[in-house]
Structure formats: structure tokens, C-alpha cells
Amino acid sequence: MSTALDQFFSAWSVADAGARADLIAAAMAPVFSYADVRSEGRLATLPLLNAYVGQFPQMAPGWTATVADRKEVAGYTEALVAFSGPDEDGTPVTQYGTYFADLDAEGRLATLVGFSGNGLT
Known about the structure:
By secondary structure, the chain is α+β, with helices and mostly antiparallel strands. The protein has one domain: Nuclear Transport Factor 2, Chain: A, CATH 3.10.450.50. The chain is built from 3 helices and 5 strands. A 5-stranded mixed beta sheet has the order 1-5-4-3-2. Strand 4 and strand 5 form a beta hairpin.
């Protein structure tokens, strides 16, 4: 079963802005906040979040983002996300980010905050 986290991160490799927006909208709560180490602050509207996520397939073509591991911590979901794709010479590489999510009553992402690296405890 796909979760809001899985759906949100599947959108990261979608180049088509409309299709990506649909995936993101389905994953996010009506009122949400997203931030990571590169977002330059909190993003709280679907157009801003879609534009931000849309930079990933432009800057890293062929890369994917997938939830590699997750667990519950004090009512939050802690997730390890694998960002994988080819480096400049075609060698497969994976970089990790650790995200903390707070879900609404329907299981959608109300708050999602990401950090670089494998910080899953």
C-alpha cells in the first residue's frame, strides 16, 4: 500500500509539471509545511512546492527518490529517502536524506522536514 510519503517522493522524478502537481496534491494535507536543507525556508502552497520539486528532474535527470526505510518516533514518521541515479560518468550513486513527517487524520503530509544524510536512528 502506498503512503503519502511514497506518493510525494515518487513525484520527484516526474518532469511533467501537471502530473507532478497531481501526485503532490494527493500526498499533502490542505494546510501543510515543507522544508529541507535546500528549500530556503518553509514552502506552504502547492504551486511553490511543485516548482521546488520540479527542480529535481531538471537538475538530476534519470534520478529517483524513494522511501528506503521508515519508523514511528513520538507520533512522527521518520523516513530515510534514497536519491539514486547516475553520476557524470554513468556510475550509479545513492545519496540519502532523513525526513520527519507529521500526518493529518487522513494520512496526508501536514509537516515534512528533511535533512541531508542517513540520520535514521
